[in-house]
């Protein structure tokens, strides 16, 4: 199947300060010749994110906007974005600046070579650079990835990564239900248990993580929920 279009889905919650810049980076990224669609889903922001999003859509016809009237969580925003996405490949991009669209060629390469159905971008496989931040966050990520791998029989190094990309026909086989950060272990489990199992690749990416002062939102409760989701979506399918 010829791949011609990339849909980048951006969930947004109170990202007024970074939204315009991340859209500019996505629009300027090397997409390996693919046409671009950007689906921005505002998840009930209380700052000026909606105004920024609408202004961007007026200037750039490739931008599709979706609004949630109330905050429902990242997973809910991604579900709405996936429903609107029309590309052959669908890629998740956070609205902050932690993940760089300069890594798109790495993420898209296995698709364009005809080798992959799903690609994960790993912060632990040696991207060009990684900001040094929280030790216990990295340990938590490794523990969650290990637990996920034990039940999915995958050998991922970074299950919790934002950068996940899918052939659209893979997403069409999956029904997602998690509203918050449980999306990550849920979709990993549901991809792993598809029959036949999709061809999954992992590539190294750079990472410029945020501090809580910068606006980082994930916390320890999300880690507990992730463990629950690993069990739920692997054992009680």
UniProtKB/TrEMBL annotation:
Occurrences of domain Glycosyltransferase 2-like (ranges): 7-174
Pfam families in alphabetical order: Glycos_transf_2 (PF00535)
UniProt xrefs under SUPFAM superfamilies: Nucleotide-diphospho-sugar transferases
InterPro entries given in the database record: Glyco_trans_2-like, Glycosyltransferase_2, Nucleotide-diphossugar_trans
Domain of life of the native organism: Bacteria
Protein name: Glycosyltransferase family 2 protein
Source organism of the structure: Phaeospirillum tilakii
């Amino acid at each position: 199947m010829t791949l011609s279009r990339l849909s980048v889905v951006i969930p947004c919650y109170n990202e007024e300060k970074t939204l315009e810049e991340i859209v500019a980076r996505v629009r300027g990224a090397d997409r390996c010749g693919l046409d671009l669609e950007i689906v921005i889903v505002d998840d009930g922001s209380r700052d000026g994110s909606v105004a920024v999003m609408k202004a961007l859509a007026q200037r750039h016809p490739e931008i599709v906007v979706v609004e949630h009237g109330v905050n429902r969580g990242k997973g809910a925003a991604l579900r709405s974005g996936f429903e609107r996405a029309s590309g052959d490949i669908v890629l998740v991009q956070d609205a902050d600046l932690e993940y760089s669209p300069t890594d798109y060629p790495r993420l898209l390469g296995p698709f364009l070579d005809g080798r992959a159905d799903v690609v994960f971008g790993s912060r632990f496989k040696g991207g060009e650079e990684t900001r040094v931040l929280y030790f216990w966050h990295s340990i938590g990520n490794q523990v969650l990835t290990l637990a996920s791998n034990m039940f999915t029989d995958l050998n991922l190094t970074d299950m919790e990564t934002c950068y996940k990309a899918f052939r659209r026909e893979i997403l069409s086989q999956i029904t997602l239900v998690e509203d918050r950060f449980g999306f990550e272990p849920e979709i990993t489990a549901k991809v792993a248990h598809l029959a036949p199992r999709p061809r999954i690749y992992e590539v190294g990416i750079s990472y410029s993580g945020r501090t809580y002062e910068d606006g980082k939102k994930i916390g320890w409760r999300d880690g507990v929920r992730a463990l629950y989701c690993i069990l739920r979506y692997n054992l009680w399918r």
